Amino acid sequence: MPQQILILDFGSQYTQLIARRIRELNVYCEIHPYTHAPDLTEDIRGVVLSGSPCSVRDADSPNPDLSRYLGQVPVLGVCYGAQLLAHQQGGEVLPATIREYGRARLARVHHSSPLLHGVPTESQVWMSHGDTIKTLPAGFDIIASTPEVAVAAYQIQGQETYGIQFHPEVTHSTDGKTLLQNFVVNICGLDQSWTPEHFVDSMVETLQRTIGEEDQVILGLSGGVDSSVAALLLHKAIGKRLHGIFVNNGLLRKNEYEDVLHSYQGLGLNVRGVDASQEFYDALVGLTDPELKRKAIGRTFIEVFDREAQKVEGARWLAQGTIYPDVIESVSVKGPAVTIKSHHNVGGLPEKMNLRIVEPLRALFKDEVREVGHTLELPENILHRHPFPGPGLGIRILGDITPEKVDLLQRADAIFINGLKDHGLYDKVWQAGVMLLPVQSVGVMGDERTYERVVALRAVTSVDGMTADWAHLPYEFLADVSNRIINQVRGINRVVYDISSKPPATIEWE
Ligand SMILES: Nc1ncnc2c1ncn2[C@@H]1O[C@H](COP(=O)(O)OP(=O)(O)OP(=O)(O)O)[C@@H](O)[C@H]1O
Ligand SMILES: O=c1[nH]c(=O)c2[nH+]cn([C@@H]3O[C@H](COP(=O)(O)O)[C@@H](O)[C@H]3O)c2[nH]1
Ligand SMILES: NC(=O)CC[C@H](N)C(=O)O
Ligand SMILES: [Mg+2]
User: Fold this and answer.
1) Does residue 388 fall inside a structural domain?
2) What's the CA gap between 108 and 141, in Å, rounded?
3) Model confidence at 347, in pLDDT bands (50, 70, 90)?
4) In this model, does residue 339 exceed pLDDT 90?
5) Could you give the strand order of the β-sheet that contains 271-275, starting from the edge strand earlier in sequence?
6) Atom 14, ligand 2: which residue's CA is nearest?
7) What is the dihedral of CA 324, 101, 62, 2, to 10 degrees?
8) 172 catalytic, yes or no?
9) Residues 86-105: tens digit of each pLDDT
10) Beta pairing partners, 109
11) pLDDT one-digit tens code per residue, 389-437
12) How far apart are alpha carbons 66 and 63 in whole angstroms?
């Protein structure tokens, strides 16, 4: 494990942002749910306690034993984290008379505190709390206040333990980055060496150590950025012992099976296509519940991989291009966050598997994966492809799936995506696709009544897929796409545009 900061998650909506900000400083960090707080190891050089929707005053709120960290390594409590430290040691946390959500300004700042070095008085900070620390325990010193909140920041005497009521990870806290840098670099003593090049070198070494010198590895390759980057890393580590398998699950985009196989030519990778469409359709018959569909798809993928592995002597590993958000959104049993959706490659995996899993990108965000891909010289056309989910059109056809519906959606989707490319808009949106709704509506075409299906166009802007805004596409473009879909795809007579952001919606509809 690289030297790192441990972020203990109490379920705040901002926990991932803390991780992003720390990684932007080229320092590695990991988020762990408070229910599975790891023991201190050599590599953990500091701990951040996240915020939380809970109140320390509630009986069942997160309240782990933090003695294994306190006084051993520097600790920074953010919002709930700060309230929890004060509460555990006999301070008083009460509902605030005015709840604070939004901008505030620091007033008194102790510049001698290493945490606040370079943070000016009057610095703007972002607040989001209903509770406030009324009385600090003995041995806690206030190091910053705002006009409304006396305890905006504190330090425990004789320890490198700090608490802050505001959120430095939110960009509205103008000096948040300075504060986090003070903590991770100056106080925890981490060097800022976690770069894409460093990641490649250390991951190649880890892969060689984990896989050994004999075993063969099967890799689920999809044509997407994540699995392609994973392929280059594994290829660098084990060369010809890597066997890429691209599965046609019958839920791909129009012509995608041929296009993807073609795009891998010339990369020196060993890739094979397997057409398992019918198997997936069979597994999905009659299923309408989104989670059941995802699980059925995840299971079928594994069955296909297991079978293909049997054809390769010495195959013991299944590699996947799983990335951090897939894990965060799928794994809830372990953490305070609820399951949003089971990504087919994580929460959708069956309990019993013959192959062992290896996932070199499991700790990276999407934009970090792209940076690693750039370092490994992945061709631009793959590097800048929009993400496409493994369950494919299966989670964009609401309700049950039939080959006829897949065909309808493939045709509408191709018009939208090609239109984006033709209008120079493809690279301006982060992801785009079409959803086939289980709704029919009345229309009139050539004086005839129609009663056909509705599709929704979805296009979003985002950095890492964790949050997203709907893309403000030009009306003329939307008008053109709508026209073409209705005229060219028989069976669709209405097109709508999805104007929901994530959160509260998600990018995919299922
Ligand atoms: N059709 C497929 N055949 C084989 N493996 C697949 C297929 N679709 C998805 N996978 C596996 O599941 C993983 C997760 O899919 P996901 O869509 O998140 O990543 P990706 O396809 O590599 O990249 P992107 O997010 O850019 O589409 C992939 O990295 C790959 O290992
Ligand atoms: O490989 C995948 N397997 C899945 O099961 C899956 N579900 C969602 N996604 C992709 O993840 C990103 C966030 O999607 P949501 O906002 O819908 O959760 C978007 O980019 C989605 O396309 C998936 N990718
Ligand atoms: N953002 C937070 O961590 C909030 C903590 C706590 N729920 C409060 O309202 O004060
Ligand atoms: Mg994909």
Assistant:
1) no
2) 13
3) low
4) no
5) 271-275, 242-248, 216-220, 315-319, 356-358
6) 507
7) 30
8) no
9) 999 999 999 988 777 888 99
10) 144
11) 999 999 999 999 999 999 999 999 999 999 999 999 999 999 999 999 9
12) 9
| Residue 352's pLDDT band (cuts 50, 70, 90) | low
Note the pLDDT of residue 83: 98
pLDDT range class, residue 489, cuts 50, 70, 90:
very high
Q: Which of 187, 219, 245 is the last residue before a domain boundary?
A: 187
Prediction ipTM score: 0.88
Q: Are 111 and 159 in contact (CB under 8 A)?
A: no
Confidence of residue 340 (pLDDT cuts 50, 70, 90): low
Tokens of 222: 């999809």
Residue 279 region by backbone torsions, left for phi larger than 0, else alpha for psi between -120 and 50, else beta? alpha
Mean pLDDT of 196-219: 94
Bind-site residues for ATP? 222-228
Structure tokens at 39: 């023991």
Q: Which amino acid is at 244?
A: G
> Annotated catalytic, 79?
yes
24 an active-site residue? no
CA of 463 to the centre of ligand 3 (A): 26
Dist CA 286 CA 73 (whole Å): 54
Residues with CB under 6 A from ligand 1: 220-222, 224-227, 245-247, 249, 320-322, 326, 345, 387-390
> Residue 232 pLDDT more than 70?
yes
* DSSP code per residue over 244-272: EEEEE-S-SPTTHHHHHHHHTTTTT--EE
Count up the domains in the chain and report the number: 3
**3-state secondary structure at position 459:** strand
Determine the residue type at 293: K
**pLDDT tens string 49-90:** 999 999 999 999 999 999 999 999 999 999 999 999 999 999
Taking a C-beta distance cutoff of 8 angstroms, is the pair 468, 461 a contact?
yes
Q: Cα dist. 174→126, 168, 188, 201 in Å? A: 9, 8, 22, 34
CATH of the domain at 490: 3.30.300.10
The label of the residue with tokens 């792209």 reads 370
* pLDDT level of residue 292 (50, 70, 90 thresholds): very high
Same domain, yes or no: 437 and 482: yes
Question: Of the ranges 174-178, 335-339, 461-465, which one carries the lowest mean pLDDT score?
Answer: 335-339
The backbone torsions φ and ψ at residue 364, rounded to the nearest 5 degrees and listed phi first, read -105, 150
Q: Which of 54, 80, 166 to mutate to test the pocket of ligand 3 (most atoms within 8 A of CB)?
A: 80
- Say which CATH number the domain at 78 has: 3.40.50.880
The reply to whether 33 and 165 lie within a common domain is yes
How many other C-beta atoms can be found within 10 angstroms of the C-beta atom of residue 452?
17
Q: Identify whether the C-beta of residue 400 lies closer than 8 Å to the C-beta of residue 281.
A: no
Q: Indicate the helix (H) or strand (E) that contains 440.
A: strand 431-445
